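Sequence and fold
=================
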Amino acid sequence: MDFVRAIKFPLDDENWITKVVVGTLLNLIPIFGLGYTVGVARNVVHGKARPLPGTEDLGQVITDGIMATIAGFVYALPALAVGCVMGIFSSIAGESDAGGLMVACLGMFATLASLIYAIPATAMYWMGVMRYSESGNFSDFVQFGSLLRDVRAHAGVLVMLMLYVLAVGLVAALISPLLIVTCVGLLVLSFWVQIAHGHLIGQAALEIEQRR
């Protein structure tokens, strides 16, 4: 996987300014940002020299964004359920010292459980993005048994993907203070992170395909 390529690939597109401006504006609605992530991943897998979707691809970007958002909500349901249970228990426990202690202990346990869940859930979601980008079928996001088997079989690639995604976040965190004086710069950076994730997911999909 090529981290630098994932960061700089839009600059190789002669229409990159127009595409980035349009994408940045659409990224104000999170659904569209995820649509670009999926679209870039698909184009990387298909070997397109200019993987950043253009204005002619906006219909597909919207569709991909809706599907990826719904899938993300499905994967978040267990964590949301735990949060709801914790909220209900906190209201029942009241203000007593014993109740407060139980809530604190359960809160620590719930946080740890959520972190443990998030790692495989994120890996399965990424595998779902890879499959969906090829088939266009939402069902590929929710074939949990098959996705989990793929995650286990290609754990090494997914660990590298996770590290690179974290690295993109670190780079963005280092750059963002320099752009804080202008909201426009932060908006562009947010979109750039989305498409960099898509490029990395596409690279991971290609690597997994080569190993099969």
Q: What stands out?
A: Helices lie at 3-8, 16-26, 30-45, 58-93, 97-135, 144-153, 155-179, 183-211.
